[in-house]
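Board notes (copied after class):
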Amino acid sequence: HHPFPRLMAEGLVVTVNSDDPAMFNTTLTNEFLEVAHTFHLGAEDIEALVMTALDVSLLPDHQKKAYGTRYRQEFEKLYDKYGKA
């Protein structure tokens, strides 16, 4: 009954975070995998979450742009290999 899918559907800013990886014995990758599995999210959903996190980050705009380009390229490689579904 977690509101995560509803928050995303309503267009609110939602991000996935690992909080304190050492304390909680997790990684950001694991958190994305858990979210994807729990809420049946596809690769495009994960890409949107990643890009939202980048957009709301405190990085300077030039770094956001550079990372955004790199992230989109990496997602395209994944889509080419595995598809978007």
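Comment from the instructor: The first helix runs from residue 4 to 9. The chain has a mean pLDDT of 94.
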